[in-house]
Amino acid sequence: MSSLPQAERTQDSPMDIQKKRQNKDLVELQGLIDAHFECRKKEEEELIALKERIEKRRAERAEQLRIRSEKDKERQARRGEAEKEEADAKKKFEEDAKKKSALSSMGSNYSSHLQKVR
Description:
The protein has about 120 residues and is mostly helical. The chain has helices at about 5-10, 15-115.
């Protein structure tokens, strides 16, 4: 048997034991609730950070696409200008060749005319 007197052993009545157990369970449950909400808070912060990163990446990508599109338009415009200049130069060359041909034929006709006259 225990060395405690009978009065001290019976001091913890079944109601006191039940209350202590309920308090212990309540403290444990409150700890679990607090841990759960801390975890939820962390996850919510991570989710917000993820959404911000996604939105930032989306904006960066849209900007990159806009810049690329502008560069492509500029490149196509330069290419179009170069092709137009090339076509103009070719046309001018052909016109100059026609003029030279016409002048040389006129000169040869004139020469032959002079020879006939002599």
